[in-house]
Amino acid sequence: MKINQFNNAPLKAYSDNRVKNPAEKAQSQSTSSVSTRDVVNVSSQAKLLGTARQTAAESPDMREQKVKDLRDQVRAGTYKPDIRKTAMNLVREDIDFLR
After folding, report:
1. Tens digit of pLDDT for each residue in 49-63?
2. How far, in Å, are 20, 27, 29, 35 from residue 23 at the CA level?
3. Which is nearest to 76 in space by CA: 86, 66, 68?
4. Angle at CA 84, nearest 5°, toward 79 and 87?
5. Which one of 9, 54, 65, 97 is at 20 to 30 Å from 25 when CA atoms are compared?
6. Distance from C-alpha of 77 to C-alpha of 83, rounded to nearest angstrom
């Protein structure tokens, strides 16, 4: 395939908009920054997630003492879990999974 005529119009559009000297460049940037602004829209779900994370980070860890007590019981050999309660929770989780 032979191209006889080369159309220079698309490249000319870019070269026409080129700024010639640094003073013009600074002026064009200052005028363009005034006319265009970035906008960020945050969904209500994202706002809720942010609030939840902030609340969780600020709240004290209430289970810390419970975990410490259980760890001490396991180390001492005095921890006696309720087997029936554990079994009921496992069955309940399986039933919830199947629904």
Report:
1. 999 999 888 887 778
2. 9, 6, 10, 19
3. 68
4. 105
5. 9
6. 16
CA-nearest of 37, 17, 35 to 25 is 17
In tens, the pLDDT along 57-93 reads 888 777 888 889 999 999 999 999 999 999 998 888 7
On the question of pLDDT at 15 being above 70, the answer is no
CA distance 70 to 85: 16
Q: Phi then psi for 7, rounded to 5 degrees? A: -90, 115
CA gap 64, 72 in Å, rounded? 12
